[in-house]
Amino acid sequence: QVQLVESGGGLVQAGGSLRLSCEASGRISSEYTMGWFRQAPGKERDLVAAMWWSGVSSYYRGSVKGRFTISGDNAKNTVYLQMNSLKPEDTAVYYCVASSRGTYEFDIWGQGTQVTVSS
Question: What confidence tens digit (pLDDT) does each residue in 47-57 have?
Fold first, then answer.
C-alpha cells in the first residue's frame, strides 16, 4: 500500500507562504484522490483541498480558495499544497491523504506536518 510522508511545514509570519510536499512511497494510480486535511488544537480535522490524480477536478475549502493550490507531480509521486497569504487561523497540523477508491473516503494518511502562522 502507498505510504505518505509530508514535509515543508514550519513557522511563517502572516501574509507569508509555505509549500507542503507529500511524497508517496509507491506509484499513485490515476484512480486515486489525493488531498490535504488540517487539524487545529481543539478542533476537528477538516478537508482543505483535494484533487483527482487524473487531473479531472479539484476541491478547495471555502476559507482557502484563492490562497491555496493543490498540485501533483506524477513523475515524482508527489503532491503539493502551495499556501499563500497565510493567516494565523491557518495554523494547524496538515495531513496528506489518499483515497485508493477515488472518493472522499481517505484510507491512507501521512503523519502530519505542523504549520504555524504568527500574527
Answer: 999 999 887 78
